[in-house]
TrEMBL record:
GO terms for cellular component: cytosol. Keywords: Glycosyltransferase, Transferase. It comes from Anseongella ginsenosidimutans. PANTHER family: LIPOPOLYSACCHARIDE 1,2-N-ACETYLGLUCOSAMINETRANSFERASE-RELATED, TETRAACYLDISACCHARIDE 4'-KINASE-RELATED. GO terms for molecular function: ADP-heptose-lipopolysaccharide heptosyltransferase activity. SUPFAM superfamilies: UDP-Glycosyltransferase/glycogen phosphorylase. One of its GO terms (biological process) is lipopolysaccharide core region biosynthetic process. This is ADP-heptose:LPS heptosyltransferase.
Length: 384
């Protein structure tokens, strides 16, 4: 059967990535490649309520449709009537084509059915099963059985398969609105934070409990950095993380201040752009830092190998996830059985301190994202 149209000619494309902030950011290079594939091409992103905020700062996205699809993890479930309304909304846009971005543990088929019902003539996606008429441009998904790619690489490869040209600079990117840094500087001044003095960011929160590095160990590391290096620590977080951030600040002897719940997303982006270093769990702010070129130390729970910091100076400090908190998804379990065959233990405050000392002594420069398999146990030194 002949497929309608040619990808190089399409001017109205729907990109679909209904996941979290970090996933949307890591899809940014692929979206940008699609956008740059044709002059006057319009890109609309369908994403979740947790991803829509960051999408507005990603170059190449012209419009955002926010909807929490029920086949992704969300607090609230959309009913059938809401799905029908979304289908009609997509019909009204008269898209030429849609690209469904996933990771290997996610099926594109429910989303492909949504596109089918919306009458979108061309749909591209990676899929393990043969989708027949649901996906016109089917890329058989080899992950994780034959290979495991970084999420940025996976999404770029999907666009390449459609004839897209991927630029040499495959970096994450964020557009910082004019006046953003002035706003954050004014807020810091009111809090009596002088950014001319040495300071750095710590983000102790996570989107999933299984990725949580022990807050007590992180507090001890931050205290060591303050005492030995003379730095002040700015602790960021969401409003629900205020208690966690305040407890950390109270234990760091007047050298820390909690900003949890005090910054909107634009201000968090502005602060991260100014910071010489971010220390965080594997969560959204790590990918914001990567997009801004801010060096980062990632306390990396071994939940999957796809989300290491992309092309930014970083140090990865992995730790094991307790068996009771590991995913029940069989595909994830299989991938992790290949990637993480040896226990790595838990990095201590000294490991974080040494990594911070190293990164703070260097100028910013890009690093390749490191996909890691069987990371070695800690020897008391951060991995090179």
């Amino acid at each position: 059967m002949q497929k309608p149209g040619n990808w190089g000619d399409f001017t109205n494309i729907l990109c679909i990535r209904p996941d979290n902030l970090g996933d949307v950011l890591m899809t940014g290079p692929a979206i940008r490649a699609l956008k740059n594939g044709k002059k006057d091409r319009k890109i609309t992103l369908l994403t979740s309520s947790s991803g829509s905020g960051i999408a507005r700062y990603i170059p190449g996205i012209d419009q955002v449709i926010e909807f929490d699809l029920p086949w992704y993890k969300h607090d609230l479930r959309a009913g059938a009537a809401m799905i029908n309304d979304l289908t009609e909304q997509l019909k009204d846009h008269r898209f030429d084509a849609a690209v469904i971005f996933t990771v290997y543990s996610q099926s594109p088929l429910p989303t492909a059915m949504l596109c089918y019902q919306a009458g979108i003539p061309r749909v591209a996606a990676c899929c393990r099963e043969n989708p027949y008429g649901l996906i016109s441009d089917w890329i058989p998904d080899e992950e994780p059985f034959y290979q495991i790619k970084h999420e940025v690489t996976r999404q770029l490869d999907l666009v390449k398969s459609l004839g897209g040209t991927v630029p040499a600079e495959e970096h994450l990117s964020l557009d910082i609105p004019p006046g953003t840094q002035e706003k954050i500087l004014e807020k810091l001044e009111k809090l009596r934070v002088n950014i001319q003095d040495p300071w750095l960011m710590v983000h102790p929160g996570v989107s999933e409990d299984k990725r949580q590095y022990p807050p007590g160990l992180l507090t001890a590391a931050a205290s060591m950095i303050c005492k030995e290096l003379g730095y002040r620590v700015l602790i960021t977080g969401t409003a629900p993380e205020k208690t966690l951030a305040a407890a950390m600040a109270d234990q760091i002897d007047g050298k820390a201040i909690s900003l949890a719940g005090m910054l909107n997303l634009e201000e968090l982006i502005g602060l991260t752009a100014l910071s010489p270093l971010l220390i965080a769990n594997n969560t959204g702010p790590v990918h914001i830092a990567a997009a801004l070129g801010t060096p980062v130390i990632v306390l990396y729970a071994l939940t999957n190998p796809q989300h290491t910091p992309w092309k930014v100076m970083h140090r990865l400090l992995p730790f094991d996830v307790p068996p009771e908190k590991r995913s029940k998804n069989i595909i994830i379990r299989f991938a992790n059985s290949l990637s993480f065959t040896s226990p790595v233990g838990m990095p201590g405050p000294g490991d974080i301190f040494r990594a911070a000392t190293l990164l703070l002594s260097r100028h910013r420069k890009p690093e390749p994202a490191r996909e890691f398999f069987n990371p070695p146990p800690f020897s008391g030194q951060p991995s090179p």
